[in-house]
Amino acid sequence: xxxxxxxxxxxxxxxxxxxxxxxxxxxxxxxxxxxxxxxxxxxxxxxxxxxxxxxxxxxxxxxxxxxxxxxxxxxxxxxxxxxxxxxxxxxxxxxxxxxxxxxxxxxxxxxxxxxxxxxxxxxxxxxxxxxxxxxxxxxxxxxxxxxxxxxxxxxxxxxxxxxxxxxxxxxxxxxxxxxxxxxxxxxxxxxxxxxxxxxxxxxxxxxxxxxxxxxxxxxxxxxxxxxxxxxxxxxxxxxxxxxxxxxxxxxxxxxxxxxxxxxxxxxxxxxxxxxxxxxxxxxxxxxxxxxxxxxxxxxxxxxxxxxxxxxxxxxxxxxxxxxxxxxxxxxxxxxxxxxxxxxxxxxxxxxxxxxxxxxxxxxxxxxxxxxxxxxx
Length: 376
Ligand SMILES: C[S@@+](CC[C@H](N)C(=O)[O-])C[C@H]1O[C@@H](n2cnc3c(N)ncnc32)[C@H](O)[C@@H]1O
Prior knowledge:
The protein has helices spanning 12-21, 40-49, 68-76, 104-123, 174-182, 201-211, 232-244, 260-270, 310-327, 340-344, and strands spanning 2-6, 27-30, 33-37, 55-64, 89-97, 128-129, 136-143, 146-152, 191-194, 252-257, 280-283, 297-300, 331-337, 352-358, 361-370. With 376 residues, the chain is an alpha/beta fold.
């Protein structure tokens, strides 16, 4: 089957490496997606193990359509019995970028009609629509006149790992946090610190990567579980194997934040993870940080709050840069921010810049190899 792993802008390469690590040799990198062939086992493994994937689709048909009638006829000619039982429910998700099809709701409506009429003609009955919790979620993607119909094997987006019980303002998406970390080589280090941890997404994802814990092990529901071909025994075996693979962390993990609420939230989120209690979560102001000698890797996502005044942001980022130079060198520091002008104010020369998106905001991940200053 054709598997389409969807991701965020800037994470395509990282995702393709993860897919390669699952044993896939041939894959195609597309815009915000990686496409490969596989069986049910690989589909389940992809949902469980891919840290930088947002959802895993299974392509069932693609064709061109010049108008709505052609879309309807071609969608109706798919053998839906293979994917959807009469007593099951379904929903249609659309992603439309086309001059011909300008209303995504109408596209969903046409495909829904095609499925309903397919069944009515064959058996006089049809499966019901359930947009809230469908058994089978169908994805229709149209770009110009190209139509791709696929089944969503994940259901809810894979950023919902199942560990985040406490959320603060402006948390990173788990998929984005994992993708950021996979761009770095933090696993070659001995001491990890996120000094502005918020609800702890970066440290939690880092701990899971380092202990080999599958990112979606705590998640209870996946779309494929309500498919006609769900192989429960295979899925249980895959999960058991993933549990056996978890190993002790090889790095000292530290997460600080100035806010008491953030500390509470990070601890709570980590508490659901094996070895979560090994992370030092401490209330601390970055600007009062003194002893960094056991820390050789720093990653942070400082606030870039648009509510703050421009001058305040600039001096805040300048102070971060000064702190890194004065008290944290030598270290490998990575800063992710949606305020690119502010990143320039750190006063450090980046050795790497990676463009990404944080939701709808253009963001950048920058690496700084901070060296101690030579004193005269
Ligand atoms: C954008 S949020 C980080 C979100 C986090 N990456 C997550 O996924 O939840 C920025 C965090 O920086 C913290 N912060 C702001 N000033 C700080 C300081 N001087 N020292 C330590 N933390 C600070 C805030 O309390 C906030 O939790």
